[in-house]
């Protein structure tokens, strides 16, 4: 199996004003495409050829840095596009809403912790809502790393590489992550992944 770039699940201008058409054109068509192309070049002739994307990510971690970086970023971005939708944010489905309240105290407390994780990730990386030992946790990782390689299952992630926000927000990373949570997250999709990770 080779890696392929999925189309965005919405139009390039559908997330405006919170994420511009120009950002999505660069981020999806250039950055994500490069991870796919490089990943396909680097997997040729390795033991990982023919494995699923998740198996490649887990198996190459700590073994083949070049392949891992590109495969993990492909995994992260395939999900990142689906974790957003036009008119996102808002109401969290009941079962997930309760799990968030149980883990963090309240939705606002979760939001604060998630934004703080993204803001304090030094340099490039991601902040996550992840299921660890069947419980929700907020984590952050550098570069292409994700919760899969730390024993968790990511159910929501925000890309805090500068390419994700610099066109629209310049250096204002906190404003970008706040807009992501308040206006872009597709909570129905997050709830679906949460069900998959806990069933
Ligand atoms: Mn990115």
Q: How do the strands of the widest beta sheet line up side by side?
A: 2-1-3
How many individual helices? 8
Q: Looking at the chains present, what oligomeric state does this protein adopt? A: single chain
β-sheet strand percentage: 5-15%
Bound compounds: manganese (III) ion
Q: How confident overall, as mean pLDDT?
A: 97
Main sheet characteristics: 3 strands, antiparallel
Helix/strand class: mainly alpha
Q: What is the CATH first-level class name of the largest domain? A: Alpha Beta
Q: Which architecture of the largest domain per CATH?
A: 3-Layer(bab) Sandwich
Shape: globular
CATH fold category name of the largest domain = minor pseudopilin epsh fold
Give the full name of the CATH homologous superfamily of the largest domain.
Iron/manganese superoxide dismutase, C-terminal domain
**Tally of DSSP β-strands:** 3
Number of separate structural domains: 2
Rg, nearest Å: 16 Å
Uncertain segments: none
Quick structural overview:
With 199 residues, the chain is mainly alpha-helical. It has helices at 21-43, 53-60, 65-82, 94-104, 107-120, 166-169, 173-184, 187-198; strands spanning 125-132, 135-142, 153-159. It is built from 8 helices and 3 strands.
């Amino acid at each position: 199996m080779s890696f392929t770039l999925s189309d965005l699940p919405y139009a390039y201008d559908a997330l405006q004003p919170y994420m511009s058409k120009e950002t999505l054109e660069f981020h999806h068509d250039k950055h994500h495409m490069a991870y796919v192309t490089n990943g396909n070049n680097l997997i040729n002739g390795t033991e990982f050829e023919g494995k699923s994307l998740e198996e490649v990510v887990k198996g190459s971690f700590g073994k083949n840095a070049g392949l891992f970086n590109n495969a993990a970023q492909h995994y992260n971005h395939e999900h990142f596009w689906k974790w957003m939708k036009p008119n996102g944010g808002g109401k969290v489905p009941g079962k997930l809403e309760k799990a968030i309240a149980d883990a963090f105290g309240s939705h606002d407390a979760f939001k604060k912790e998630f934004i703080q994780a993204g803001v304090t990730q030094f340099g490039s990386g991601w902040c996550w809502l992840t299921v660890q030992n069947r419980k929700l946790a907020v984590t952050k990782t550098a570069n292409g790393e994700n919760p899969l390689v730390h024993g968790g299952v990511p159910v929501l992630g925000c890309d805090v590489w500068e390419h994700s926000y610099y066109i629209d927000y310049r250096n204002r990373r906190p404003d970008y992550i706040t807009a992501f949570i308040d206006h872009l997250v597709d909570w129905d999709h997050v709830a679906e992944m949460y069900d998959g990770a806990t069933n």
